[in-house]
Amino acid sequence: MGDFYQNGVITTLHNLSQRPLEALEAELVQFSKSRPMSLVLPSLYSELQGPALDAIVEHLTEVPYLDEIVIGLDCATEAQYREALRFFARLPQRHRVLWNDGPRLQNLHRKLVDKGLSPGEPGKGRNVWFCFGYVLASGRGRSVALHDCDILTYDRGLLARLIYPVANPSFNYTFCKGYYARVADGKINGRVSRLLVTPLLRALKKTIGQLDYLEYLDSYRYPLAGEFSLRRDALLDIRIPSDWGLEIGVLSEMKRNYATNRICQVDIADIYDHKHQDLSPNNDKTGLSKMSIDISKAVFRKLATNGVVFSTETFRSLKATYYRIALDFVETYYNDAVINGLNLDIHKEEQAVEMFAENILKAGIHFLDNPMETPFIPSWNRVLSALPDLGEEFLAAVEADIQEFSP
Question: What are the alphabetically sorted keywords of the record (predicted)?
């Protein structure tokens, strides 16, 4: 059970009473009459074969308030797309599976590239962006939630709490971030958030000073959570990264577009576990190594747009400052684990810190060497201005795929 303490500059909605799910869903059903709700599920085909997604879909079959479910399917052949259509067919809600690698959606992708509106390299960011475009084109959902497809501890109460703040018409929130304790199987997980993001933000405050943006990011209890919800209008203006900087990029865009009293975070799970990325200390093109570089670059880019001037010396000082703060956090988390009877390997924690410190410097040097790099996907406002008929073409392409390949 969480406490009721409000920290930072955004509202925190706690889980104080273990409110019955039936009561929460009954309210959401009422809200859905005036504010229809959509769910976005960015998925790799491989996740259909994994241990989590089948159970997630079973839980979703019981959700009574969703008007639409949009599944973005990546890395799928024609046969695998057909299988995905069968896999999700049990959902009673209106649902659409976007075959992102299929010829019809690839044709739309080429049209975007020809207009200088490339949605970037394949990955979660691009998948999410296409799903958002479909939600906008369909016009059904006014409140939209997104969560990952690899949550091993999923139950539908997570979704109810996640979407409630932006679905309740008496609330003023445009964006809501989910949070939870990354504790499962007797271990504290979430290394990138615990050992990279939080100590990096604290180190930036020491090296470049207190900034509203840093205070804002530091207000999130779990900034890298893949679960968030927002109102449909917010989908038009956000420019998100196509790499591992997606979550930080979305938070940054919300700060750019909205006052902090329109933003909140909500406790959505007592226990949360999903698939874990390898540390990959010898390969910065994959795993947590690549993730840490992409996230660091996303933070540096945003700070630069706020007028912060970086240099090689800045990043060297930042690396040293981060390293000391992060090592102190290792001790903090170890003590937290011990009092709760959990396991935490200090050696592995410090190995991660050492790699993250190196990657902060790598990200900084890359940022300095590539000042014109623009990894952001264009906003849907810009896309629809350049290609006004794209939304209708998108809907038609998805329907044509379903009609041709449905079992």
Answer: Transferase
* CA gap 343, 336 in Å, rounded: 10
**Taking the complete model, does pTM exceed 0.70, yes or no?**
yes
To 5 degrees, how large is the angle CA 126–CA 228–CA 98? 35
pLDDT at 23: 97
pLDDT of residue 276: 67
User: Order of strands across the sheet with 95-99?
Assistant: 11-13, 263-269, 175-180, 228-231, 143-146, 37-44, 66-74, 95-99
Are the C-beta atoms of 119 and 129 separated by less than 8 Å?
A: yes
The predicted-structure confidence for 192-226, as pLDDT tens digits, reads as follows 999 999 999 999 999 999 999 999 999 999 999 99
Task: Please compute Rg for the chain using Cα positions.
Answer: 21
CB-based contact 157:49 (threshold 8 Å): no
CA atoms within 13 A on the CB side of 365: 8
Give the H or E element holding residue 378: none
> What is the pLDDT, as a whole number, of residue 137?
98
Q: How far is CA 332 from CA 100, 209, 257, 320, 325, in A?
A: 43, 24, 35, 19, 11
For the chain, the helix, strand and coil percentages under 3-state DSSP, each to the nearest 5: 50, 15, 35
Residues in the chain: 407
Amino acid letter at 306? Answer: N
d(CA 339, CA 355): 27
Report CA-CA distances (Å) from 297 to 13, 83, 286, 394. Answer: 30, 37, 15, 32
Residue reference for tokens 């394949």: 122
Amino acid present at 102? G
- Residue 311: CB atoms within 10 A of its CB come to 10
pLDDT given at position 87: 98
CA-based nearest residue to 141, from 69, 93, 90, 64? 69
Task: Give the side-chain half-sphere CA count within 13 A for 343.
Answer: 7
What is the pLDDT, as a whole number, of residue 155?
94
Residue linked to tokens 């009473």: 17
pLDDT at 399: 98
Of 267, 55, 255, 75, residue with least CA distance to 150: 55
For residue 102, the number of C-alpha atoms closer than 13 Å in the C-beta half-sphere is 24
Residues in the chain with pLDDT values less than 70? 1-2, 276
- The token duo for 181 is 């304790």
